[in-house]
Amino acid sequence: MQQNYKRKNYPVIYLIPILLIFTVFYVSPAILGLLYSLTDASIKSSGVTFVGLENYKLLFSDGADFFFSIWNQFKFAILDALGKTIIGLLAALLLNRRFRGNHFLRALIYLPIMFGTIMVAIIFNYILSYDGFLNGFFEAVGLHGLVNDWLGSFTLAMYSVIAVDVWVGAGWSMLLILAALQSVPKEVIECSDIDGAGAFTKFFQITLPYIIGTLNLSFLLSIISGLKAFDIIYAMTRGGPGHATEVMSTFLVKSMSSGSIGYPAAISVIQFIIITVVAMIITYFNNRKESQ
User: Which of 158, 164, 166 is nearest to 242 (CA)?
Assistant: First the structure.
């Protein structure tokens, strides 16, 4: 009887450390942040007064700047996720073949994710600055029309940062998709070769159905990562020029310069709600599609 009890509770016992860590480092700060968002807490004052939804009213009354940061966050997340997933898929299809240097190329594409954000920002700030390497290269080969202030342009700054983040994270998507490609039964591929199926037919009718779940997972995780994006944006542009690359995270950091705690906490709560709702919607449609 005692042995049966231990067997039944074996998984529960080993979940306790994980639940404790999750509660201490995730649940507790989230609850504390929610409570702070309902107060006038500030680093300039030791007193804390409950103000209800005043911070949220003030946040939404800010209007254009806050809503523009939300728009930029979604723009960054969607384009970033598409870039990582598409480039990761193309790289995985190429590197799923056997040829000399295959493993070296895999490591080379995955390598950028190993670099620190600050190092990446410093390198690309030099490359993309007006007097930097990229414009110098265009000048040297006579492509003067392509010379731009890549990080100082209101039009190009966001796309430049997205391109850098895609370069950093595409290798992770590639490995995820590559693992799915290697699970496609070789017998099915060989039968399609015997039947004379072309490359496009094999991909869309055989390969894609096997890896669609992984593609959805890669896109979902990249979307969530993009909705939380802060470090690469802040390190490269600090939300500038103007508000061109301002996202919720950089908007939150700038709001802390006033010394307020309650107001930034309200921003973080709104960001948490947005990320949760988006993740739930994507997961719902993904599960619905897989169950059909």
Answer: 158
C-alpha dihedral (94, 95, 96, 99), degrees to nearest 10: 100
Question: Taking Cα atoms as reference points, which of 167, 158, 165 lies closest to residue 73?
Answer: 158
Quickly count: other Cβ atoms within 10 Å of residue 130's Cβ. Answer: 13
Task: Please state the φ and ψ torsions of residue 115, each to the nearest 5 degrees.
Answer: -80, 150
Q: Which H or E element spans position 50?
A: none
89 DSSP 8-state letter: H
Burial class (CB within 10 angstroms; exposed 0-12, middle 13-18, buried 19+) of 116? exposed
Whole-angstrom Cα distance, residue 105 to residue 108?
A: 5
45: left (phi over 0), alpha (psi -120 to 50) or beta: beta
Q: Using alpha carbons, select from 165, 155, 206 the residue that is nearest to residue 184.
A: 206
8 A C-beta contact, residue 92 and residue 181: yes
pTM of the predicted protein model: 0.86
Instruction: Give the three-class secondary structure for 142.
Output: coil
Omega before residue 209 within 30° of 0, cis: no
Q: What is the mean pLDDT of the chain?
A: 87
Give the contacts of 1 (CB within 8 A, at least 6 positions apart): none
Q: What pLDDT is recorded for position 154?
A: 92
- Locus of tokens 């110098």: 136
Backbone angles phi, psi at 77, to 5 degrees: -65, -45
110 with 174: CB under 8 angstroms? yes
Residue 58 burial class via C-beta count within 10 angstroms: exposed 0-12, middle 13-18, buried 19 and up:
middle
Q: What is the rounded end-to-end Cα distance, in angstroms, of the chain? A: 43
Span 209-242, pLDDT tens digits:
889 889 988 998 999 899 989 999 999 999 989 8
Q: Which helix (H) or strand (E) holds 204?
A: none
Q: In this structure, are residues 67 and 248 in contact, taking their beta carbons and an 8 Å threshold?
A: no
